[in-house]
Amino acid sequence: MTHRALCSRKAPDASIAAVVGVTYEVPIIYTRIVHEKKVVPAIVFFIASCSSTFTKTGDVSHNAFSKNCEVTVFTIPPKIDFDELGVVEFKLIPFVGYPRTISSAKSQASPLVCANGGNALLLWEVNGIGQYLKGTVIRVK
């Protein structure tokens, strides 16, 4: 069934299906849901519930910074003293995936970094296709 057939609710066009030779079920279903506006709030809730998580590590704690504090990103341990506060695990976001850039990882992790007293993020775990999976929340002295 083609995108046009689902949106118009007409019978599927067999000639288009034969030429294409594959089905596009996920994009068609997503497009149909968006066009009919039936489940969009559920999708938004589902995506929002897949946010990154923070797990405390070590025995050092610091007071939280403001929600929009400045976060510095390191890809190797800094040469200055710092305290490790915890680990941020990025979650797979539907239709988006894991963060692929330093800026997207920073924007996803910044609220967790600030809320747990950190002022920097050490990005260190990348999978085989360039997606960030984890980062360490640190407080640079």
Task: Give the key terms.
141 residues, five-stranded mixed β-sheet, 5 helices, globular, disordered N terminus
Could you give a short account of the major beta sheet? Answer: 5 strands, mixed
Poorly predicted tracts of residues: 1-31, 40-49
Helix content: 25-40%
Number of strands: 5
Radius of gyration: 21 Å
Write down the domain tally.
2
Number of helices: 5
For the record, give the distance between the C-alpha atoms at the N and C termini, rounded to a whole number.
Answer: 60 Å
Order of helices and strands: HHHHEEEHEE
Oligomer: single chain
- Percent strand: 15-25%
Specify the overall morphology.
globular
In spatial order, strands of the major sheet run 1-3-5-4-2
What structural category characterises the helix and strand content? alpha+beta
Overall pLDDT metric: 76
Could you explain the architecture of this structure?
- With 141 residues, this protein is an alpha+beta fold.
- The chain has two domains: 3-38, no CATH class; 50-140, no CATH class.
- The chain contains five helices and five strands.
- It has helices spanning 3-8, 14-20, 25-36, 40-48, 102-115; strands spanning 53-56, 72-74, 82-89, 120-126, 132-140.
- It has a five-stranded mixed β-sheet with strand order 1-3-5-4-2, covered by helices on one side.
- A hairpin with a 5-residue loop joins β4 (120-126) and β5.
- The model is unreliable at 1-31 and 40-49 (pLDDT under 50).
